[in-house]
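Comment thread on ticket #2218

A.B. wrote:
> Attaching the input chain for the structure job we discussed in standup.
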Amino acid sequence: MKEILTKLNPAFDHRVRLGIMSILMVSDWVDFNTLKETLGLTDGRLASHIKALEKEKFIEVRKRFIGRKPNTSYRATNTGQKAFLDHLDALEKLMDNTRE
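C.D. wrote:
> Ran it. Output below, let me know if you need it in another format.
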């Protein structure tokens, strides 16, 4: 079991980061407001978790203007997708191990 625990990625220890990555895994680009509304977070709380994922290079940021309004969108990088899938795999193995 100890080996399984070492495969859990600390970047995904928080439920907000799990939520962000879950959304980004099934979407191409997702804008800040959609993430904020879907997860029920304040601007600051979402921004801090996005920053942590961005620091790990798990998400990519795209800033652009739509009309005259700024729009910031995010998507999971290949590195982020692999890290998240590995994390989920470790969680599944952990759960299977505790059921035995």
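A.B. wrote:
> Thanks. Noting for the ticket: The longest strand covers residues 59-66.
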